[in-house]
Amino acid sequence: MTKIFLIGMPGAGKTTLGKKLAEYLRVRFVDLDAEIQESEGKPIPEIFSQHGEEYFRRVESRLLREWATGEEAFVMATGGGAPCFHEGMEVINRYGTSVFLDCSVDELLERVKRNKERPLLLTSSEDELRAKLERMRELRWDCYRQAKITLEEPSLDDVLGALAVRK
After folding, report:
1. Interval 52-62 mean pLDDT
2. 101 CB contacts (<8 Å, ≥6 apart)?
């Protein structure tokens, strides 16, 4: 059974590539952030503002575990922090194939500037956003590097090629 977990920083392309990969593999695409929003009945920024990050991480962890231990095949775009909290990376690697989509801070910056729905990246300036991304990447690096597959700014073909080698 195919369970592929795409991990990486916000803006790394997990959702975009995940949808294409799931379609190619003919399995369900799961966006963990969308699952959290559905479970909680509110958008992520509202969850953060009403309950805080720790509450959000507990919900995220519970849903990650439910999907990981379920019977269905899927491609999941995890939230950027999902692998790094509550033993998320251990769960991911135990139940599926982890693929770290690594992107430069410059590329991430260009992508996340266009999305105002990321509560951990709300800033007043581009310099502040760059500093936040650099710090977040540094803090999460050791976790992300535990992935079974690491690809730098990959295309769908890159991901498919790496997964074929793993089969």
Report:
1. 95
2. 6, 7, 8, 12, 13, 14, 17, 151, 153, 154
